[in-house]
Protein backbone atom coordinates (compact mmCIF):
# COMPACT_ATOMS: atom_id res chain seq x y z
CA UNK A 1 0.00 0.00 0.00
CA UNK A 2 1.31 3.45 -0.94
CA UNK A 3 2.00 5.70 2.02
CA UNK A 4 0.72 9.34 1.93
CA UNK A 5 2.12 11.90 4.36
CA UNK A 6 -1.01 14.05 4.60
CA UNK A 7 -3.17 13.65 7.63
CA UNK A 8 -6.29 13.15 5.65
CA UNK A 9 -4.75 10.37 3.72
CA UNK A 10 -3.26 8.92 6.88
CA UNK A 11 -6.71 9.06 8.50
CA UNK A 12 -8.21 7.19 5.59
CA UNK A 13 -5.47 4.61 5.82
CA UNK A 14 -6.12 4.16 9.50
CA UNK A 15 -9.84 3.81 8.90
CA UNK A 16 -9.24 1.32 6.11
CA UNK A 17 -6.88 -0.67 8.30
CA UNK A 18 -9.42 -0.75 11.09
CA UNK A 19 -12.10 -1.92 8.65
CA UNK A 20 -9.96 -4.77 7.37
CA UNK A 21 -9.21 -5.85 10.90
CA UNK A 22 -12.90 -5.96 11.80
CA UNK A 23 -13.72 -8.23 8.83
CA UNK A 24 -11.10 -10.98 8.89
CA UNK A 25 -12.61 -12.85 5.91
CA UNK A 26 -11.41 -10.21 3.45
CA UNK A 27 -7.88 -8.98 3.05
CA UNK A 28 -6.26 -6.81 0.41
CA UNK A 29 -3.20 -7.91 -1.54
CA UNK A 30 -2.49 -5.32 -4.21
CA UNK A 31 -5.39 -5.16 -6.61
CA UNK A 32 -6.52 -8.73 -5.97
CA UNK A 33 -8.85 -9.51 -3.09
CA UNK A 34 -8.62 -13.07 -1.63
CA UNK A 35 -10.95 -14.73 0.83
CA UNK A 36 -9.39 -16.38 3.82
CA UNK A 37 -10.71 -19.79 4.92
CA UNK A 38 -13.78 -19.71 7.10
CA UNK A 39 -13.25 -20.18 10.83
CA UNK A 40 -13.71 -23.70 12.18
CA UNK A 41 -17.22 -24.72 13.04
CA UNK A 42 -17.93 -24.77 16.72
CA UNK A 43 -19.88 -27.69 18.08
CA UNK A 44 -22.44 -27.59 20.83
CA UNK A 45 -19.95 -28.88 23.37
CA UNK A 46 -17.56 -25.91 22.83
CA UNK A 47 -19.58 -22.66 22.57
CA UNK A 48 -17.79 -19.46 21.50
CA UNK A 49 -16.44 -17.31 24.34
CA UNK A 50 -18.75 -14.63 25.65
CA UNK A 51 -21.91 -16.34 24.43
CA UNK A 52 -24.29 -18.48 26.44
CA UNK A 53 -24.72 -22.14 25.59
CA UNK A 54 -27.82 -22.55 23.44
CA UNK A 55 -29.05 -26.08 22.79
CA UNK A 56 -30.27 -26.41 19.24
CA UNK A 57 -32.82 -28.98 18.13
CA UNK A 58 -31.29 -31.08 15.35
CA UNK A 59 -33.44 -33.23 13.11
CA UNK A 60 -32.13 -36.82 13.06
CA UNK A 61 -31.50 -38.18 9.58
CA UNK A 62 -33.48 -41.32 8.79
CA UNK A 63 -31.64 -44.65 8.61
CA UNK A 64 -30.47 -45.44 5.10
CA UNK A 65 -32.38 -48.35 3.66
CA UNK A 66 -31.48 -50.50 0.67
CA UNK A 67 -34.48 -51.13 -1.50
CA UNK A 68 -34.63 -54.79 -2.47
CA UNK A 69 -35.25 -54.59 -6.20
CA UNK A 70 -33.84 -57.86 -7.56
CA UNK A 71 -33.27 -58.69 -11.19
CA UNK A 72 -36.45 -59.45 -13.12
CA UNK A 73 -35.37 -62.84 -14.46
CA UNK A 74 -34.18 -63.95 -11.05
CA UNK A 75 -37.42 -62.79 -9.47
CA UNK A 76 -39.53 -64.78 -11.90
CA UNK A 77 -37.66 -67.99 -11.05
CA UNK A 78 -37.04 -67.27 -7.37
CA UNK A 79 -38.32 -69.72 -4.74
CA UNK A 80 -39.50 -66.78 -2.61
CA UNK A 81 -43.20 -66.01 -3.00
CA UNK A 82 -42.77 -62.35 -2.00
CA UNK A 83 -44.52 -59.80 -4.18
CA UNK A 84 -44.08 -56.62 -2.12
CA UNK A 85 -40.76 -54.81 -1.91
CA UNK A 86 -39.45 -54.46 1.62
CA UNK A 87 -36.42 -52.31 2.50
CA UNK A 88 -33.46 -53.92 4.28
CA UNK A 89 -31.16 -51.82 6.51
CA UNK A 90 -27.71 -51.32 5.01
CA UNK A 91 -26.11 -51.88 8.40
CA UNK A 92 -27.69 -55.33 8.52
CA UNK A 93 -26.34 -56.16 5.05
CA UNK A 94 -22.83 -55.11 6.08
CA UNK A 95 -22.83 -57.29 9.19
CA UNK A 96 -24.43 -60.34 7.61
CA UNK A 97 -22.44 -63.63 7.92
CA UNK A 98 -22.29 -65.80 4.83
CA UNK A 99 -23.35 -69.43 4.66
CA UNK A 100 -21.65 -71.61 2.04
CA UNK A 101 -22.82 -75.07 3.06
CA UNK A 102 -19.25 -76.41 3.38
CA UNK A 103 -19.30 -77.18 7.12
CA UNK A 104 -18.01 -73.78 8.24
CA UNK A 105 -21.02 -73.67 10.53
CA UNK A 106 -24.21 -75.61 11.00
CA UNK A 107 -27.50 -74.38 9.49
CA UNK A 108 -28.96 -74.02 12.98
CA UNK A 109 -26.18 -71.72 14.17
CA UNK A 110 -26.41 -69.64 11.00
CA UNK A 111 -30.17 -69.21 11.41
CA UNK A 112 -29.57 -68.06 15.00
CA UNK A 113 -27.04 -65.48 13.78
CA UNK A 114 -29.50 -64.07 11.23
CA UNK A 115 -32.25 -63.96 13.86
CA UNK A 116 -29.89 -62.08 16.19
CA UNK A 117 -29.18 -59.50 13.46
CA UNK A 118 -32.92 -59.06 12.91
CA UNK A 119 -33.38 -58.46 16.63
CA UNK A 120 -30.55 -55.90 16.80
CA UNK A 121 -31.82 -53.86 13.84
CA UNK A 122 -35.48 -54.24 14.89
CA UNK A 123 -36.56 -56.11 11.76
CA UNK A 124 -40.05 -57.24 12.68
CA UNK A 125 -41.44 -58.17 9.28
CA UNK A 126 -41.02 -61.82 8.39
CA UNK A 127 -40.55 -61.19 4.67
CA UNK A 128 -37.58 -58.89 5.34
CA UNK A 129 -36.01 -61.56 7.57
CA UNK A 130 -36.50 -64.21 4.88
CA UNK A 131 -34.83 -62.02 2.27
CA UNK A 132 -31.98 -61.28 4.67
CA UNK A 133 -31.45 -65.02 5.20
CA UNK A 134 -31.39 -65.74 1.48
CA UNK A 135 -28.96 -62.85 0.95
CA UNK A 136 -26.41 -64.68 3.12
CA UNK A 137 -26.15 -67.70 0.79
CA UNK A 138 -22.85 -68.21 -1.01
CA UNK A 139 -21.19 -71.05 -2.88
CA UNK A 140 -22.99 -74.38 -2.62
CA UNK A 141 -25.86 -72.89 -0.64
CA UNK A 142 -26.54 -70.29 -3.33
CA UNK A 143 -26.38 -72.94 -6.07
CA UNK A 144 -28.87 -75.07 -4.15
CA UNK A 145 -31.22 -72.12 -3.65
CA UNK A 146 -31.15 -71.17 -7.33
CA UNK A 147 -31.64 -74.78 -8.43
CA UNK A 148 -34.98 -74.97 -6.61
CA UNK A 149 -36.71 -72.73 -9.14
CA UNK A 150 -40.18 -71.30 -8.95
CA UNK A 151 -41.86 -74.68 -8.42
CA UNK A 152 -40.69 -74.65 -4.77
CA UNK A 153 -42.07 -71.62 -2.93
CA UNK A 154 -41.18 -70.54 0.60
CA UNK A 155 -43.87 -68.36 2.11
CA UNK A 156 -42.52 -68.04 5.65
CA UNK A 157 -39.40 -68.26 7.78
CA UNK A 158 -39.98 -71.79 9.10
CA UNK A 159 -40.25 -73.40 5.67
CA UNK A 160 -36.92 -71.95 4.54
CA UNK A 161 -35.17 -72.95 7.77
CA UNK A 162 -36.46 -76.52 7.57
CA UNK A 163 -35.39 -76.88 3.93
CA UNK A 164 -31.95 -75.46 4.75
CA UNK A 165 -31.48 -77.92 7.60
CA UNK A 166 -32.60 -80.88 5.49
CA UNK A 167 -30.13 -79.98 2.74
CA UNK A 168 -27.03 -78.99 4.73
CA UNK A 169 -27.70 -80.44 8.17
CA UNK A 170 -25.37 -82.98 9.68
CA UNK A 171 -26.41 -86.52 8.84
CA UNK A 172 -24.36 -87.93 11.68
CA UNK A 173 -22.79 -87.00 14.98
CA UNK A 174 -19.48 -85.14 14.80
CA UNK A 175 -17.92 -87.36 17.45
CA UNK A 176 -18.81 -90.52 15.54
CA UNK A 177 -17.37 -89.03 12.35
CA UNK A 178 -14.20 -88.07 14.20
CA UNK A 179 -13.89 -91.60 15.58
CA UNK A 180 -14.42 -92.97 12.08
CA UNK A 181 -11.58 -90.81 10.77
CA UNK A 182 -9.14 -91.86 13.49
CA UNK A 183 -9.87 -95.58 13.02
CA UNK A 184 -10.24 -95.67 9.23
CA UNK A 185 -8.43 -98.51 7.45
CA UNK A 186 -8.01 -99.50 3.85
CA UNK A 187 -9.87 -102.63 2.83
CA UNK A 188 -7.77 -105.51 1.42
CA UNK A 189 -9.26 -105.34 -2.09
CA UNK A 190 -9.97 -101.59 -2.14
CA UNK A 191 -8.45 -99.47 -4.86
CA UNK A 192 -6.22 -96.69 -3.58
CA UNK A 193 -8.15 -94.02 -5.47
CA UNK A 194 -11.38 -95.20 -3.84
CA UNK A 195 -9.77 -95.11 -0.42
CA UNK A 196 -8.46 -91.58 -1.01
CA UNK A 197 -11.95 -90.41 -1.92
CA UNK A 198 -13.45 -92.12 1.15
CA UNK A 199 -10.84 -90.59 3.47
CA UNK A 200 -11.30 -87.09 2.03
CA UNK A 201 -15.08 -87.35 2.25
CA UNK A 202 -14.93 -88.47 5.89
CA UNK A 203 -12.62 -85.59 6.78
CA UNK A 204 -14.79 -82.97 5.05
CA UNK A 205 -17.99 -84.13 6.77
CA UNK A 206 -16.61 -83.21 10.20
CA UNK A 207 -17.52 -79.74 11.45
CA UNK A 208 -14.73 -77.18 11.17
CA UNK A 209 -14.86 -76.41 14.90
CA UNK A 210 -13.93 -80.01 15.84
CA UNK A 211 -12.20 -81.09 12.62
CA UNK A 212 -8.56 -82.16 13.00
CA UNK A 213 -5.90 -80.03 11.38
CA UNK A 214 -4.32 -80.92 8.06
CA UNK A 215 -1.22 -82.22 9.87
CA UNK A 216 -3.34 -84.48 12.05
CA UNK A 217 -5.28 -85.79 9.06
CA UNK A 218 -1.97 -86.53 7.33
CA UNK A 219 -0.89 -88.71 10.27
CA UNK A 220 -4.22 -90.55 10.25
CA UNK A 221 -3.79 -91.18 6.52
CA UNK A 222 -0.32 -92.69 7.02
CA UNK A 223 -1.68 -94.86 9.81
CA UNK A 224 -4.46 -96.21 7.59
CA UNK A 225 -2.09 -97.39 4.83
CA UNK A 226 0.48 -100.15 4.57
CA UNK A 227 3.74 -99.55 6.44
CA UNK A 228 5.83 -99.75 3.24
CA UNK A 229 3.62 -97.20 1.47
CA UNK A 230 3.72 -94.90 4.50
CA UNK A 231 7.54 -95.02 4.59
CA UNK A 232 7.75 -94.24 0.88
CA UNK A 233 5.38 -91.28 1.28
CA UNK A 234 7.56 -89.80 4.02
CA UNK A 235 10.81 -90.49 2.14
CA UNK A 236 9.48 -88.90 -1.07
CA UNK A 237 8.66 -85.62 0.70
CA UNK A 238 4.94 -85.93 1.32
CA UNK A 239 3.89 -83.49 4.02
CA UNK A 240 0.31 -82.60 3.06
CA UNK A 241 -2.82 -84.55 2.23
CA UNK A 242 -2.92 -83.71 -1.53
CA UNK A 243 0.75 -84.64 -1.89
CA UNK A 244 0.19 -87.88 0.01
CA UNK A 245 -2.65 -88.88 -2.33
CA UNK A 246 -0.49 -88.65 -5.46
CA UNK A 247 2.65 -90.11 -3.85
CA UNK A 248 0.74 -93.09 -2.43
CA UNK A 249 -0.41 -94.16 -5.90
CA UNK A 250 3.14 -93.96 -7.28
CA UNK A 251 4.55 -95.75 -4.23
CA UNK A 252 2.09 -98.60 -4.59
CA UNK A 253 2.98 -99.02 -8.27
CA UNK A 254 6.69 -99.10 -7.40
CA UNK A 255 6.14 -101.75 -4.73
CA UNK A 256 4.06 -103.86 -7.12
CA UNK A 257 6.77 -103.67 -9.79
CA UNK A 258 9.42 -104.61 -7.23
CA UNK A 259 7.40 -107.65 -6.20
CA UNK A 260 6.83 -106.59 -2.59
CA UNK A 261 3.09 -106.19 -3.07
CA UNK A 262 0.68 -108.36 -4.98
CA UNK A 263 -1.15 -106.59 -7.80
CA UNK A 264 -4.67 -105.53 -7.03
CA UNK A 265 -7.46 -107.46 -8.68
CA UNK A 266 -9.33 -105.42 -11.28
CA UNK A 267 -12.82 -104.27 -10.60
CA UNK A 268 -15.56 -106.65 -11.70
CA UNK A 269 -17.43 -105.51 -14.80
CA UNK A 270 -20.64 -103.67 -14.18
CA UNK A 271 -23.74 -105.51 -15.44
CA UNK A 272 -25.54 -103.92 -18.35
CA UNK A 273 -28.95 -104.86 -16.95
CA UNK A 274 -28.79 -105.19 -13.15
CA UNK A 275 -32.49 -106.05 -12.92
CA UNK A 276 -32.00 -109.12 -15.15
CA UNK A 277 -29.28 -110.68 -13.01
CA UNK A 278 -29.92 -114.24 -11.90
CA UNK A 279 -29.88 -115.16 -8.20
CA UNK A 280 -26.64 -117.11 -8.78
CA UNK A 281 -24.00 -114.41 -9.03
CA UNK A 282 -21.38 -116.77 -10.46
CA UNK A 283 -23.37 -117.19 -13.69
CA UNK A 284 -24.15 -114.32 -15.98
CA UNK A 285 -27.69 -114.13 -17.41
CA UNK A 286 -28.08 -115.39 -20.95
CA UNK A 287 -29.55 -112.70 -23.20
CA UNK A 288 -29.03 -114.44 -26.56
CA UNK A 289 -32.25 -114.74 -28.62
CA UNK A 290 -31.67 -118.43 -29.38
CA UNK A 291 -34.41 -121.01 -28.79
CA UNK A 292 -32.01 -123.25 -26.84
CA UNK A 293 -29.90 -121.47 -24.21
CA UNK A 294 -26.17 -122.07 -24.16
CA UNK A 295 -26.16 -123.37 -20.61
CA UNK A 296 -28.96 -125.86 -21.30
CA UNK A 297 -28.94 -128.89 -23.60
CA UNK A 298 -31.74 -130.07 -25.85
CA UNK A 299 -33.01 -132.56 -23.27
CA UNK A 300 -33.34 -129.84 -20.63
CA UNK A 301 -30.24 -130.70 -18.57
CA UNK A 302 -28.12 -127.73 -17.63
CA UNK A 303 -24.43 -127.81 -18.57
CA UNK A 304 -21.80 -125.98 -16.58
CA UNK A 305 -20.03 -123.11 -18.33
CA UNK A 306 -17.02 -121.15 -17.07
CA UNK A 307 -18.05 -117.99 -15.27
CA UNK A 308 -16.58 -114.58 -15.99
CA UNK A 309 -14.76 -114.13 -12.63
CA UNK A 310 -12.96 -117.49 -13.06
CA UNK A 311 -11.74 -116.50 -16.51
CA UNK A 312 -10.47 -113.21 -15.16
CA UNK A 313 -8.60 -115.02 -12.41
CA UNK A 314 -6.93 -117.32 -14.95
CA UNK A 315 -5.85 -114.35 -17.05
CA UNK A 316 -4.49 -112.59 -13.96
CA UNK A 317 -2.49 -115.68 -12.99
CA UNK A 318 -0.96 -115.90 -16.45
CA UNK A 319 -0.07 -112.20 -16.40
CA UNK A 320 1.44 -112.58 -12.95
CA UNK A 321 3.57 -115.54 -14.10
CA UNK A 322 4.80 -113.57 -17.09
CA UNK A 323 5.66 -110.65 -14.84
CA UNK A 324 7.61 -112.89 -12.47
CA UNK A 325 9.55 -114.38 -15.38
CA UNK A 326 10.39 -110.91 -16.69
CA UNK A 327 11.62 -109.83 -13.25
CA UNK A 328 13.81 -112.94 -13.04
CA UNK A 329 15.28 -112.27 -16.48
CA UNK A 330 16.08 -108.67 -15.56
CA UNK A 331 17.91 -109.81 -12.44
CA UNK A 332 19.90 -112.39 -14.41
CA UNK A 333 20.80 -109.81 -17.04
CA UNK A 334 22.00 -107.45 -14.31
CA UNK A 335 24.30 -110.24 -13.02
CA UNK A 336 25.74 -110.89 -16.49
CA UNK A 337 23.79 -114.06 -17.40
CA UNK A 338 21.87 -113.85 -20.70
CA UNK A 339 19.77 -116.96 -21.34
CA UNK A 340 17.72 -117.47 -24.44
CA UNK A 341 14.17 -116.59 -23.54
CA UNK A 342 11.23 -117.83 -25.58
CA UNK A 343 7.82 -116.81 -24.29
CA UNK A 344 5.16 -119.47 -24.20
CA UNK A 345 2.54 -119.31 -26.89
CA UNK A 346 -0.82 -118.20 -25.59
CA UNK A 347 -3.77 -120.47 -26.45
CA UNK A 348 -6.26 -119.02 -28.87
CA UNK A 349 -9.54 -118.09 -27.25
Which characteristics define this entry?
single chain; 349 residues; mainly alpha; Non-ribosomal Peptide Synthetase Peptidyl Carrier Protein, Chain A; two-stranded antiparallel ribbon; 3% strand
What order do the strands of the largest sheet run in, or round the barrel if closed? 1-2
SSE order, as H and E? HEEEHEHHHHHHHHHHH
How many DSSP E strands? 4
Strand content: under 5%
How would you characterize the largest beta sheet?
2 strands, antiparallel
Helix content: 40-55%
* Continuous helix count: 13
What is the molecular shape?
elongated
In round numbers, the mean pLDDT is 68
* Class from helix and strand fractions: mainly alpha
Fold blueprint:
Blueprint: H1 7-22, E1 26-29, E2 32-35, E3 65-66, H2 72-76, E4 88-89, H3 90-94, H4 107-120, H5 126-135, H6 140-148, H7 157-168, H8 174-182, H9 192-205, H10 214-224, H11 227-235, H12 241-258, H13 308-335
Antiparallel strand pairs: 1-2, 3-4
Helix pairs in contact: 8-9, 11-12
Biased composition (Polar residues): 293-310, 330-349
Domain Retrotransposon gag: 131-206
Pfam families: Retrotrans_gag
What can you see in these coordinates?
- This protein is mainly alpha-helical.
- Helices cover 46% and strands 3% of the residues.
- The protein contains 13 helices and 4 strands.
- Strands 1-2 form a two-stranded antiparallel sheet. Strands 3-4 form a two-stranded antiparallel sheet.
- A hairpin with a 2-residue loop joins β1 and β2.
- α8 runs antiparallel to α9 (192-205) and α11 packs across α12 (241-258).
- The longest helix is centred in the last third of the chain and has 28 residues, at 308-335.
- This is Retrotransposon gag domain-containing protein.
